[in-house]
């Protein structure tokens, strides 16, 4: 690409993602790369939607140390924290270094996984586990108001 197009993508952050698709889009189509979470948060208008909220609840399938590198929950927290809004994450499971999410403003996190479930069975069992976890988070929040 450097020789034929004059575009050096060898050190382009994110350029190697998806088999080099990002680098190709930059080199051949003049594209620019940005974290996906930032794009979705902007398009969805998260900042305006959370104005006046007392709490933001976000989530993803697996919350771990990689979450801080541009995944949606980290992006949501980065929008909420400057506004003084606490952030809770509900996720399918917790992974290594999950405590790092506090660095980006996620105040508390909860795993919906109640027991080991084969990935193929998650569409069947996952929604119920997620619903029960969310209910327990709601009950915990209600306790805080009752105290």
The largest sheet is: 3 strands, parallel
- Helix content class: 40-55%
Q: Which residue ranges are poorly predicted, with pLDDT under 50 across at least 5 consecutive positions? A: none
| Biggest β-sheet: strands ordered side by side in the sheet | 1-2-3
Radius of gyration: 19 Å
CATH architecture of the largest domain: 3-Layer(aba) Sandwich
Summary tags:
single chain, 147 residues, alpha/beta, Rossmann fold, 3-stranded parallel β-sheet, 6 helices, 3 strands, 14% strand, globular
Can you walk me through this structure?
By secondary structure, the chain is of the alpha/beta class. The chain has two domains: 1-33, no CATH class; 36-146, Glycerate kinase, domain 1 (Rossmann fold, 3-Layer(aba) Sandwich), CATH 3.40.50. The protein is 44% helix and 14% strand. It contains six helices and three strands, in the order H-H-H-H-E-H-E-E-H. The protein has helices at 2-5, 17-29, 36-44, 46-50, 72-80, 122-146; strands at 56-63, 87-94, 108-111. Strands 1-2-3 form a three-stranded parallel sheet, sandwiched between helices.
Give a concise summary.
With 147 residues, this protein is of the alpha/beta class.
């Amino acid at each position: 690409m450097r020789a034929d197009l004059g575009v050096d993508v060898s050190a382009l952050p994110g350029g190697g993602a998806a088999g080099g698709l990002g680098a190709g889009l930059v080199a051949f189509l003049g594209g620019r790369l940005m974290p996906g979470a930032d794009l979705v948060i902007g398009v969805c208008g998260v900042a305006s939607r959370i104005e006046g909220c007392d709490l933001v609840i976000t989530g993803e399938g697996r919350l771990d140390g990689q979450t801080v590198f541009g995944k949606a929950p980290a992006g949501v927290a980065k929008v909420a924290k400057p506004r003084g809004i606490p952030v809770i994450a509900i996720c399918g499971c917790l992974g290594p270094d999950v405590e790092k999410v506090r660095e980006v403003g996620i105040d508390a996190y909860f795993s919906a996984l109640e027991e080991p479930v084969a990935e193929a069975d998650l569409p069947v069992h996952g929604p119920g586990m997620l619903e029960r976890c969310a209910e327990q988070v709601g009950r915990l929040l209600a306790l805080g108001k009752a105290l």
